[in-house]
Design brief:
Elements lengths: L1 E4 L9 E6 L5 E7 L5 E5 L2 E3 L12 H5 L6 E4 L3 H11 L3
Antiparallel strand pairs: 1-2, 1-6, 2-3, 3-4, 4-5
């Protein structure tokens, strides 16, 4: 999933990519910030302040129903996630 987060706080990411397992728990995550910083997380690795969620990620529909309209989620392919991941995370 790719989710744009519309807000003005420079301490929080503005774009989040999440790979989830069948139960919607995050397996890998990449977060991009307004100032160009980024962070990522997987297994026991946390870089740039990112971490995997401890509860299942809500569905795209649930996220889109945010009453304040702060989130713009979209489903992306595994291949699209991999392109972003490989561009950020060193092997």
């Amino acid at each position: 999933m790719k989710c744009e987060w519309l807000h003005d706080d420079e301490n929080d990411p503005i774009l989040i990519y999440s790979e989830m397992d069948d139960e919607r728990y995050e397996v890998r995550k990449i977060e991009f910030y307004r100032d160009g910083r980024y962070g990522y997380a997987y297994e026991a690795v946390e870089v740039g302040g990112s971490g995997l969620g401890e509860v299942p990620v809500p569905t795209i529909e649930e996220i889109a129903e945010d009453e304040f309209g702060h989130f713009v989620p979209m489903k992306i392919s595994k291949e699209d996630f991999e392109k972003v991941w490989k561009g950020i995370v060193p092997e």
